Hints:
Elements: H1 2-34, E1 37-42, H2 47-60, E2 65-70, H3 73-82, E3 87-90, H4 96-100, E4 106-120, E5 139-140, H5 142-150, H6 159-163, E6 176-180, H7 185-197, H8 199-204, E7 217-219, H9 221-231, E8 235-240, H10 241-246, E9 253-255, E10 261-262, H11 266-273, E11 299-307, H12 313-328, H13 331-337, H14 344-354
Parallel strand pairs: 1-2, 1-3, 5-9, 6-7, 6-8
Antiparallel strand pairs: 3-11, 4-8, 4-11, 9-10
Helix pairs in contact: 1-12, 12-14
Amino acid sequence: MSAQLQSKGHIYLLPLIAILLNIASCTANNRNINRVSLVGAGASFPAPLYERWLLDYNQQNPNVEINYQAIGSSAGVQQLIEGTVDFAASDVGITNEQAAKIKRGAIALPITAGSIVLAYNLAPVARQSSQVNVPTGLNLSRQVYVDIFLGKITNWNHPRIAAANPGVNLPDLPIQVVHRTDGSGTTSVLTQHLSAISPEWKSKVAAGKSVAWPVGIGGKGNEGVTALIQQIPGAIGYVEYVYAKQNKLPMAALENKFGNYITPTPESVAQTLEAVKLPADNLIAFITDPIGAQSYPIVTYTWLLTYQQYPNRVKAQALKNFIDWAVIDGQKSSLELGYIPLSQKVVLQVQSAAKKIGE
């Protein structure tokens, strides 16, 4: 009888021991993951959102330390190539030539989206009382903002600016263009758009993360350009929407391909993104001149760049965990800060691509 009970006791104990061992293993894995430290660098475009994400994620995972430096897309990609970071961020993804230099493989994941705006520093414009339902921001036609960046329109009361802004008392004030000095995905997105709408811009300046600006002064990062616009009366420059919003800078309504003047809003940016089709192989695509009637014309995804292979499996798993959190829980912060949440289709694409990390 005693032997029988002892035998049954072993039968009951074995599953319990297996469960306890599994719990211990999971706890050890979580403990290892929770103690990991990750370092990233790159685009300033998504930096305010990354800052919020890393704070929120750390509160939920207090032993996971993720640091991010907004040093520009070019510098971020270069650090990924050199292997000095665990991940990077870029507003233009990564080129095939750049990816070929990374022996561990590279994966580009669209992580959020937003608009690039033309913010300016002018005293509040006075409008004639007979004008009704006139937007509070200035309207800039396609050719006008190209010519401002080309240095061909140099004063705010220029007749061509006035023509698009009836009822507005424009100041007799020089235009001071402000641009980026660092290699910037934001610059690349803007100059791709300018090249798409202006043959003159394409031939004289072209597109790139760094270009030879015909006029203007430079600032480093979105934050540097924003600061200069704030400091200089008559300044105009290009920044990510969040920077203009947070600093309460007026933003121009830009003429789109359809001929409508569109203010950057979550709705107008979402209209543009609907036309962007991400290829299955690398999830990188742009739309340089959207055709939608209500589409804001300068919109981009921004990408989180990872290696495919990590020598440290714990780091790989920690990064995958963070990415999964970012495309689900993290998207709730996007709209609040002025970014555009990923569509469900794009979320599924990102989750599928992120599974390759560590394989």
